[in-house]
Amino acid sequence: MATKSGPRGQANKPAELVASPATRSCRIGEFSLALPAMQAGLAGYSDMAMRVVARRRDCPYAVTEALLDRVLLMGGRGREKGSVLCPEDHPVAGQLLGSEAEEMAAAARVLLDCGFDVIDLNFACPVRKVMGRCRGGYLLGDPAEAIEIMRRVRDAVPGALTMKLRRALDESAVAGENFQRIFEEAVELEFAAVAVHGRTVRQKYTGLADWTFLEQLKSRYPQATIFGSGDVFTAEDAMRMLVETGVDGVWIARGAIGNPWIFRDLAALMRGESLPPPPGILEQRQAILEHYAMATTLYGEDQASRHMRKMGIKYAKLHPQGAVVWRDFIAVRSQMDWQGVLDRHYHQDGPGIRPPSVPDAQDMFRGCGVVPEGCT
Ligand SMILES: Cc1cc2nc3c(=O)[nH]c(=O)nc-3n(C[C@H](O)[C@H](O)[C@H](O)COP(=O)(O)O)c2cc1C
Question: Which amino acid residue places its CA nearest to atom 27 of ligand 1?
Answer without folding.
Answer: 254
